[in-house]
Amino acid sequence: MCTCLLTTAIVIQQILKTVNLKKDVKHCWPAAVAWEPGKPLVIEQVEVAPPQAMEVRLKILFTSLCHTDVYFWEAKGQTPLFPRIFGHEAGGIVESVGEGVTDLKPGDHVLPVFTGECKECRHCKSEESNMCDLLRINTDRGVMLNDGKSRFSIKGQPIYHFVGTSTFSEYTVVHVGCVAKINPAASLDKVCVLSCGISTGLGATLNVAKPKKGSTVAIFGLGAVGLAAAEGARIAGASRIIGVDLNPKRFDEAKKFGVTEFVNPKDYDKPVQEVIAEMTDGGVDRSVECTGNINAMISAFECVHDGWGVAVLVGVPNKDDAFKTHPMNLLNERTLKGTFFGNYKPRSDLPSVVEKYMNKELEVEKFITHEVPFSEINKAFEYMLQGDGLRCVIRMDA
Ligand SMILES: [Zn+2]
Ligand SMILES: [Zn+2]
Predict the structure, then answer these.
(1) CA end-to-end span of the chain
(2) Averaged pLDDT for residues 235-253
């Protein structure tokens, strides 16, 4: 056989392989399955069914661990849904597309997102909202919308999805409305962290708090989301960024994110809002609350300056919490706002966040403090449970 024929034969073989892959319903790939709450994940060979109408199958290349995965894996506060494949911060490539998918094709670089954008509902059509009626986050649903079934199974036993993404799997099936197509030149091992926490904090500041250049911003909670909010304040040109946290170990790290001053509420015997008001001649211009603690939320609101101050709530409170403040605080022209996913519409807006990284405006690398191969995914859980670092990126091919 001459060389060119051999090459042709190899190419044909490769094409056939691709075609077979798409049609082969029984194809298995490694996925990290959570069989029980709080128990280490187990890497299993999982069948991943082909995408149905308006779905895409993605090859996940990098994924990272977020607090929300750990919260639902521990399943202390909600109805447990197991066995389940967790994971919602990731970067990957489209492998195949289902019927009706027109704006994605195999090979596209994408970020899957835990909340979607159908582009048809009232929320999607509103410039002000990103809370899609059809694809808004649903932590209780473990199946696909199309047929109410899972695309994952092991020897016929269904394995539940998580927030429509389930990225702790080499292949996953996602609704097309939960997939942001991004610049293929962006390194997926870096921008994978933009799928959730980092964009949430960044958007809370840039899209909702909107600090002016030279303003003073307080950030409550210096975990990954809070530091992303600080990064937003740095990008917006804030002159003072005051970090508030109960853990003094976080202060050193926070300096890298533009935080200029630190307040540990434990160091004072008066409310932290009074401490901040004294530091800033009456209050900060903007505050962003990223802890979910109800008292921190109230402090974050009461520490903004009257006349113009805006406080933005990001953290998720406990079920029975109630926000208590004197109405005069609002009448004195303070504004209280809340945000979900930093007000970003996943498909329309995430590509521009990736561009902010590409043009070096947004620094993503400093959020990535650990990296582990997929086979050691449980280490990522250990780091997070120990409060060690910010984001651990998991390499699927290793
Ligand atoms: Zn919608
Ligand atoms: Zn998350």
Answers:
(1) 36
(2) 96
Among all chains, which residue has been given the structure tokens 């024929």?
5
Q: How far is the CA of 146 from the centre of ligand 1 (A)?
A: 15
Which neighbouring-strand residues pair with 58? Answer: 94, 172
- Whole-angstrom Cα distance, residue 103 to residue 275? 52
Angle among Cα 155, 157, 163 to the nearest 5 degrees reads 125
- The catalytic residue positions are 66-68, 88-89, 118, 121, 124, 132, 136, 196, 391
- Which ligand lies nearest to the CA atom of residue 345 in the structure? 1
Q: Which residues pair with 304 in a beta bridge?
A: 284
b/e 330-351 (16+ beta carbons within 10 angstroms → b): eeeebebeebbbbbbbbbebbb
Q: Minimum-distance ligand to the CA of 133?
A: 1
Distance CA 223, CA 229 (A): 10
Q: Which ligand is nearest to the CA of 316?
A: 2
Phi, psi angles (nearest 5°) of residue 129 = -120, 150
Q: What's the gap in Å between 134 CA and the centre of ligand 1?
A: 5
Q: What are the tens digits of pLDDT across the range 169-221?
A: 999 999 999 999 999 999 999 999 999 999 999 999 999 999 999 999 999 99
DSSP 8-class letter at 51:
P
Residue-level pLDDT at 335: 98
Residue 119 neighbours by CB under 8 Å, 6+ apart: 125, 177, 347
Q: How far is the CA of 122 from the centre of ligand 1 (A)?
A: 7
| Residue 35: closest CA among 195, 197, 152 | 152
Q: What would the pLDDT profile of 141-172 be if each residue is shown by its tens digit? A: 999 999 999 999 999 999 999 999 999 999 99
Find the 176 Cα to ligand 1 centroid distance in Å. Answer: 12
* Residue 346 Cα to ligand 2 middle (Å): 13
Q: What is the pLDDT of residue 77?
A: 74
Distance 125 CA to ligand 1 centre (A): 7
Around ion ligand 2, which residues have CB less than 5 A away? 66, 68, 196-197
Which ligand has the nearest atom to the CA of 129? 1
Specify whether the CB–CB gap between 122 and 142 falls below 8 A.
Answer: no
Contact criterion met (CB below 8 Å) for 189 and 62: yes
Task: Tell me which DSSP letter residue 256 carries.
Answer: T
Half-sphere exposure (CA, 13 Å, Cβ side) for 330? Answer: 8
The half-sphere exposure of 386 on its side-chain side, counting CA atoms within 13 A, is 9
